[in-house]
């Protein structure tokens, strides 16, 4: 097994394979699709690797061609895959992206086929496998997201176990992605779960709209007062981002670019910020790096840096 110390950031979560139409329009009219890697945590790992910060993934994929593809793609991007388990019973999760362009810009509709997927069977036992345990022990940052929280009770148990394992030299990072479709019929539970994990994290990333949904707050300063537990709090908006490290506050305006499709931007942003932190950049420098990576993703139809 490769030395776990070469992976300063370890991500824990679901891996997916996405099919993206070669042309815009209704899904019923799409004839040709491009296959690509997806999944919030995997997007972060790929972006970190592209930013020259070695990262590794702890996840589960099916014993199928899609699982083999996802694992091979991660390796191609330089991401560590030694802690990806192959599930002999559950399939790799899939989704299909529908691209529609109107006068207001690009719109993506996601069609998921991930029920009972291998990724949804992530559990505390996954973290205890030798390869995963070695990676976690050596990591400077462990990262997961609110998408994985919603997939199953065992996924949530794994995240709680991950955040309960407190090491003074390791930061626990959480992107509080609110996905209403995943919490349908249990929205109050979802808000409680994501708020709990957010308060348990050392680094919290949250979009302003998700902050309003989870905490009922949109203003950055008010959110910092309401959620003081994370050492670092990063709030993103369409016009830029605000970050706190303790009492220090940093601001970053948005960057001018041509929007193609926004999926995966938040993951690239989190990766850029974490890459800046691991590399010793200032708060402002980490925000600037985060902005650059996010705009690169939004300039393509991929979910991750290509």
Cα-atom radius of gyration: 18 Å
What is the H-and-E element order?
Answer: EEEHEHEEEHHEHHEHEHHEEEHH
Which architecture does the CATH hierarchy give at level 2? 3-Layer(aba) Sandwich
CATH class: Alpha Beta
> What is the 3D form?
globular
**What name does CATH use for the topology?**
UDP-N-acetylmuramoyl-L-alanine:D-glutamate ligase
Largest beta-sheet characterization: 9 strands, mixed
- By DSSP, the count of extended strands is 13
- Look at the helices and sheets and give the structural class: alpha/beta
The number of domains is: 1
The chain-level mean pLDDT equals 89
Strand order within the widest sheet?
A: 5-4-1-8-9-10-11-12-13
Helix content: 25-40%
CATH superfamily: Ribokinase
How many helices? The count is 11
What percent strand? 25-35%
Uncertain spans, ≥5 residues at pLDDT below 50?
Answer: 1-5, 299-303
First-to-last CA distance: 27 Å
SSE map:
Elements: E1 9-12, E2 16-21, E3 33-38, H1 40-50, E4 55-62, H2 65-76, E5 80-87, E6 93-102, E7 105-113, H3 124-128, H4 130-138, E8 141-145, H5 146-151, H6 153-164, E9 171-175, H7 187-200, E10 203-207, H8 208-215, H9 220-226, E11 232-237, E12 240-245, E13 248-253, H10 265-278, H11 283-298
Parallel strand pairs: 1-4, 1-8, 2-6, 4-5, 8-9, 9-10, 10-11
Antiparallel strand pairs: 2-3, 6-7, 11-12, 12-13
List keywords for this structure.
306 residues, disordered N terminus, 4-stranded mixed β-sheet, UDP-N-acetylmuramoyl-L-alanine:D-glutamate ligase, globular, alpha/beta, 9-stranded mixed β-sheet
Describe the overall structure:
The chain has one domain: Ribokinase (UDP-N-acetylmuramoyl-L-alanine:D-glutamate ligase, 3-Layer(aba) Sandwich), CATH 3.40.1190. It is built from 11 helices and 13 strands. It is globular, with a radius of gyration of 18 Å. The chain starts with 8 loop residues before the first strand and ends in an 8-residue tail after the last helix.
